[in-house]
Amino acid sequence: MIQKDRMLRAGGALLFLLISLTLAGCGRARHADPTITPAPTPAAALIETGLPAPGPTQPTPEAVLIPTLLLPTPKPTATEAPTQTRTPAPSPQPLVPSPLASRTATVTAQQTAAAPATSTAAGQVRKLPLATPGPDRSRICVGMPVGELADYDWGPGAPALYVNWRVVPDPPDTGGIRFGQMVRTLGDTISPELSVIQAAARRNPGSLWLIGNEPDVVAQDNSTPEQYAKSYGIAHRAIKEADPSAQVAVAGVAQPTPLRMAYLDQVLAAYRQQYGAEMPVDVWNVHAYILREERDSWGVGIPPGMEVDRGHLVEISDHADMAIFRQQIVDFRRWMADRGQRDKPLIVSEYGILMPEDYGFPPETVSRFLVDTFDYFLEARDEQTGYPSDDNRLVQTFCWFSVGMPGYPTSDLFDPVTRAITPVGKVFRAYVAALD
Q1: I want to staple 119 with a disulfide (CB 3.0 to 4.6 A). Which of 33, 174, 376, 420 is the partner?
Q2: Could you tell me if 225 and 302 are in contact, meaning their C-beta atoms sit under 8 angstroms apart?
Q3: Does domain 93-433 have CATH number 1.20.1270?
Q4: Are 410 and 353 in contact (CB under 8 A)?
Q5: Which sign, positive or negative, has the C-alpha torsion 299, 142, 408, 98?
Q6: pTM to 2 decimal places
Q7: What is the domain partition of the chain in residue ranges?
Q8: Angle, to 10 degrees, between the axis of helix 258-275 and the axis of helix 225-242?
Q9: Could you tell me which of 172, 194, 169 has the C-alpha nearest to residue 181?
Q10: Which of 247, 251, 230, 231 is CA-nearest to residue 239?
Q11: Distance (Å, rounded) from C-alpha 432 to C-alpha 141?
């Protein structure tokens, strides 16, 4: 799919204060531009317990509010015994060669720990390798909340695409690595202004455009289906007028659950009612988290405008469950096919591990999840629902969250302050470097 978060740790409360990405970009003229929308809190979007009232030092209405979020101490439920709650998972076995062993580096936990950390000094610009990705590597994307792509040492394992939750009229030269633009659609507003969006579209023909970020999450773009449908129509028209070759994608909902797909059904119906036509989508987009859907609980809550109190009731221990993960992707592709959208590509524009390490998600577990999900995305096909132009693959592009995010460190590829590569980052870099 990024701002501040508050989470309770085992044995006591520990406040994680996220860095405003407006401040994180301080010193860079592009980030200082008031027309550029700051990045959101990640889809991680743990349900807010109340947003602070707007004050004189907070962003303008066009900007994204910075919510304070809370992850309550897990409590035993009928589906999770007390001894399972908050008990760290046992360390997994070292990573073994994936099913893509002929193309993927064999990375063990020991090798990961032994690899030397690297960092980029403040102000130093790293020269990125010229991007000539093969058919598999071209699918790899990252979410980059802080800094520029060249701030990080990718070695031979750079991604082929990155997003930073903003519209950037003049993205930096990255040697051919693509940039995905993102318009924000908070409530019934569009940010930045349409003139900025159109200028960026004209300067970057053929770009991928994501219209909104999790309109289904109150702590994110917080839009009813009617609001989002209206905003999508306005933004889509503006982009296509400026660049008919633009590839316009719908906003990613937090996770492809039945509740979120019902929200999208309402979006499609609202668009049809408002514009008298089917919603035009070049690229379908979804986030792929595994979080609880329950009003006034941890997780991603209930989509705005939906009169239910519960959806998919997962537990914290399910957050990296590959069976649930795979089923969600299969279900979304089936949803697309049932609505006549099978002939469209699908991007998973945000996913990763959001829970703290001491909730049972150490680097070894996160690295295993990264390798397993990458393998799945590269290989998963279905002759009935897959994208025909891509050998019936279910997913065409997938974005790991994140390169580095203060407050959500579990999946970081690099330390967002020092730029040193993390154990998870070493696995990512080795995996991507070995792809065609």
Answers
A1: 420
A2: no
A3: no
A4: yes
A5: positive
A6: 0.77
A7: 93-433
A8: 60
A9: 169
A10: 247
A11: 10
